[in-house]
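2024-03-11 09:14:02 DEBUG pipeline.ingest accepted 1 chain
2024-03-11 09:14:02 DEBUG pipeline.ingest length=396
2024-03-11 09:14:03 DEBUG pipeline.predict start
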Amino acid sequence: MKNIFRALTTALLAVSAHLPSTAQTPDKPVLVIGVVASASGPAAALGLPEKKAVELVEEMARSRPDLPFTPKFIYYDDGSDPTRAVNAVRKLAGEDAAAVVICCTTTPASMAILDTVKSLGVLNISMASAATVVEPVSERFWTFKTPMTDRMQIAFTLDRLKKSGARRVAYFGLEDAYGEAGWNELRKMAPEHGMQIVANERFSRADTNFTPQALRIRQSGADAVYLHAIPPASVLAHQALTRVGIDRPVFHSAGAANAGFLSLAKGSVDGAYVVSGALQVHDQLSASHPLKASLQQFVQAYARKYPGESADLFAGQGWDAGQLAISALSSAVRASPPGTPLPALRASARDHMERIRNHPGANGIFNLSKDDHLGLDSVGLVMLRVENGRFKLLEN
């Protein structure tokens, strides 16, 4: 009987030695990536395409056998309200046990959650443009972002203004953290570009009457107007400038680089200049552009998932945030022993985020570091002009 048992045991061991290795590997851990986007409220034109792009990342990630974990995405809508964003992040990090958070669509919300992600010790990837979201890096240890900074966008715009011969510029922007960030960058850089700021006019996201500010800008004698806002306010402000008879060029921040801006305007903003990421006009890029191939792949995947829709600048910001979250978390899982506690895994994901190099995204090539939580250069920046209700790429 003992001989039979010994022979059976030997046979079973021999068979198990030839089984696929996956049969002996524990299941991949299920890890939560939390997403807070402005799917409603004044910033919905930005937040909806961001959320859709992250959903595309989720769909593609679930079919990737190379990932060392199974991703589970949980989504919340902050309604374009910073207080709701803070509450959503707390819920994600606590009740939902998110390993990484993607938040938020707007600068005000992204600034509002800084202390929250710091106290919770969770990596956050913002989709907002202000440089202050990630600077100074020493105070933004847990926060990264995907859009090019307003500093980069404004410097690019001022170069174009200078080449056009403009010397006197009026600032027309939102009266919130986004607008203040734009104003601070413009007033710092304008003198370096030989520009004099002759007006500083503000409005809230909920305003519908922009005529008083537009009249004061007309009286300032500006050669050009820089409009730092998002739809619908960016459209209404531009229309007010036209109504009061301002025939000077109007340059918009990247907050206007989306289909919502054009659809709301209904042809009323022709002639407007908009600084943007190259994604917005991917089909107009030369074949030699370093982002041409990666942008085409993203745009095609987005169109397959959302028939009849086009990926815009904000979809690109969501796409980059989702992809970077997957990359950082994958590296953290591979570097951590099984059963690593969530706080340690979160810290590892943050550390690996700083090590991402040569990552081709929708906004450019990401090279992150401990000193740079954005990691983009200007290769992805372009200047657009609205012609016949469409964006047209201008040569740099």
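2024-03-11 09:14:41 DEBUG pipeline.report The chain has 13 helices and 14 strands.
2024-03-11 09:14:41 DEBUG pipeline.predict end
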